[in-house]
Amino acid sequence: MKPEAQKETISVANLPQEGFLELDQYIETTAKDESVLIHVLHKAQSIFGYLPREVQLYVGRKLNVSGAKVFGVVSFYSYFTTNPVGKHKINVCTGTACYVRGVEKVFDKFKELLAVENGGTTEDKIFTLKDVRCVGACGLAPVVMVDDKVFGHVKPEDVEKIIQQYREAE
Amino acid sequence: MDLVNIKINDVPLQVPKGTTILNAAKKINVKIPTLCHLELECFGIVNKVSSCRVCMVEALGRPTLVPACSEEVYEGLEVKTDSLKAINARRMAVELLLSNHPKDCLVCPKNLDCELQALAQELGVREIHFQGQMMHYEKDTSSYSIVKDANKCVMCRRCETMCNEVQTCNILSAVNRGFDVFVGPAFNMPMAESSCTFCGQCVAVCPTAALTEMNYTRKVWRSLNDPKIHTVVQVAPAIRVAIGEEFGMEPGEVTTGQLAAALRKLGFDGVFDTDFAADLTIMEEASELVHRIQHNGTLPMLTSCCPAWVKFFEHQFPDMLDIPSTCKSPQIMFGTIAKTYYAEKKNLDPKNIQVISVMPCVAKKAEAARPELTKDEHNNVDTVITTRELAAMLKEAGIDFANLEPQSFDSMLGESTGAGVIFGATGGVIEAATRTAYEWITGETLENVDFHALRGMDGLREADVQIGDITLKIGIAHGLGNARRLLEDIRDGKSQYHAIEIMACPGGCIGGGGQPYHHGDMSIIEKRRQAIYKEDAGMARRKSHENKEILALYDEYLGKPYGEKAHELLHTHYTPKDKI
User: Fold this and answer.
1) Residue B288 annotated as catalytic
2) B325 is catalytic
3) Measured between CB atoms, which of B136, B164, B186 is closest to A71?
4) What ipTM was reported for this prediction?
5) Total CB pairs under 8 A between chain A and B
6) Is B228 a catalytic residue?
7) Which of A34, B62, B153, B430 has the lowest tally of Cβ within 10 angstroms?
8) Are residue B207 and residue B221 in the same domain, yes or no?
9) Exactly one of B202, B361, B509, B544 is catalytic; which is it?
């Protein structure tokens, strides 16, 4: 997470109450201490879609871990996001193999057509674009994943078609 | 004890198993440079993260170099600290740190006091072979106390150890990873919005200028040079045993007389002593303690002189705000008296008085700005500078501090007793209170004022003091982590104490975050501590209630200790605060 992105570390007043209930039920099944912090954060992100300030502090208090420590972990792992994400997550692999096969141009095309930067979410909240390190499908490089679906050998000219496919389904 | 045979630079020696290479080398006077390493004996805590790689040495037969600060010796180990391989590795580690470190040393607040700068010099770095990216974070100047400049962070993690392990404030953590990593509070929020107590122990141990104090020396210069302003200065007890270090004097040299002379030379209109206000605090605090004991009030009573401690309990123990004494701290009491009693006697409009405090502490800056202490039309204390800032001003003014002819403080708010000066060391406040409470409760003269059981450097201490038919149970903690343990015991109903003294910093104010940097040498703090008690022993009066100027203040202005006017002027209240 770049310094600019941190400024957006979001604070949301009205998160769904049932989300916290679900999180509580999960925490009850754990050791309820620092050792389960990452697991609980994963669960929280799967519930809320992202980890706004309130959720991080909530988890910290439940596990008796300081807010600074929770944020330290959240900002360390690129998997965690503190900003709301779109309905579909477009992950562009920038691992070595994809990189040498020209993924940068593909990535640029996504940025151009979606009008977002890396880590950004489109205004209509449909797409979040993010780089990921090697997804382990180097034979298909350059690789783009949209949610769980893998697109291999992607060329810049394929990008519009991929986006269109998901837009139309909306 | 298991001993192992090792060789360091071909010198054979025997050391106990478990010794680090760094400590083994010290035994034969071989210096291995360190940066992140920090040993805090009085807390039994060692910052041993091995992150800086500045102490790399060669261990023969091992494929890679090893960090001397954390690598333990074993039988037959042969270490080379001075091989070309080791020297080059250490220099490269420093060069890499410097490649992403601002090169503004000339105008940096830590210039000539920076451990990274000193290392670069020591290791003969004359060129930085790596031209890479630099971090560009905004400086955090949100608080009154601490400036955080993440661009100068070298990730030694000393501040984290202080904040999380020693003080248990848990404000600081590593943020981000890889190149972008730095130390900051949750959500990288401004320090002022966090639950930081501003104890300044992070500042005290930061090797660079990533954490420094907010500097108010310009403001003081402006006040001194404004003819309309009557400037009144107070110096805290701990300053006189430490400021000499900034002028090449030995740690622990007492410079009370030079301080008074130096402040007068700088041009302050009233040169006064916080020790006077410490005596005043004892009049109120001992009264409050006696009152609570005799009227079945809330016990234990906790001291309230330390602003970091006050902020700590507001954030961490908001349900227990009835326990601390309601006494304002000596610094704030002084400000109040300067702008009321002193103003009246001197026939000055308090609006034209500025009170400047010289404190060993950065939390005192934030304390002076607390809303409930500034709610009157004028602040009680206008500006707070640290020991280091005063030393810098004296240097700017070209004052030869070490060779000044000693002078006395001005009268009216300048007299003090030995009880006032020991406020600077852990255990001192409660000892001062005990001296007075003893005489008030028993009506007898206390012959031996030295309560040795209350002194020392152990983090948690307790002592029973017999006062008439009361056995006064006293607890003492320095370091907020130790304070937390005492507070948790009180909350759990396990505490039997009547009175507890708490100071946030190691050794008390003498180890404050605004004092000359000790660079990890805790023996300096011990020397300051001894100096405090030496000063006390040499005083003509050693009980606060024998201070003639204090007695005059009550007689002419305040009325009775713990009375109505004293309550209005010298007592305060606390506010529960959020924990982030």
Assistant:
1) yes
2) yes
3) B186
4) 0.87
5) 53
6) no
7) B62
8) no
9) B509
Residues on chain B touching A67 (C-beta within 8 angstroms): 170, 185-187, 580
b (16+ CB within 10 A) / e for B60-83: eeeeebbbbbbbebeeebebbbee
Cα separation, B500 vs B292, in Å, equals 13
Q: Output the six-digit token pair for B398.
A: 């070209």
- Domains of chain A are 3-76 (no CATH), 88-169 (3.40.30.10)
Position B116 in a domain: no
Decide if A68 and B173 are in contact by the 8 Å CB cutoff. yes
In a domain, B267, yes or no: yes
Which chain A residue's Cα is nearest to B196? A68
Name the minimum distance, in Å, from the CA of B103 to any CA of chain A.
21
In a domain, B131, yes or no: no
- Digits of tens for pLDDT over chain B (580 positions)? 799 999 999 999 999 999 999 999 999 999 999 999 998 877 778 888 899 999 999 999 999 999 999 999 999 999 999 999 999 999 999 999 999 999 999 999 999 999 999 999 999 999 999 988 899 999 999 999 999 999 999 999 999 999 999 999 999 999 998 888 999 999 999 999 999 999 999 999 999 999 999 999 999 999 999 999 999 999 999 999 999 999 999 999 999 999 999 999 999 999 999 999 999 999 999 999 999 999 999 999 999 999 999 999 999 999 999 999 999 999 999 999 999 999 999 999 999 999 999 999 999 999 999 999 987 766 789 999 999 999 999 999 999 999 999 999 999 999 999 999 999 999 999 999 999 999 999 999 999 999 999 999 999 999 999 998 889 999 999 999 999 999 999 999 888 899 999 999 999 999 999 999 999 899 999 999 999 999 999 999 999 999 999 999 999 999 999 999 999 999 999 999 988 8
pTM of the model: 0.91
Q: Which domain holds residue B500?
A: 217-570
* Count of structural domains within chain B: 3
**Which residues on chain B place their C-beta less than 8 Å from a C-beta of chain A?**
136-138, 164, 170-177, 180, 184-188, 194, 580
Secondary structure element (H or E) that encloses residue B474, with its range = strand B470-478
- CA-nearest residue to A68 within chain B is B186
Position B479 in a domain: yes
How far, in Å, CA of B61 to CA of B358, rounded?
55
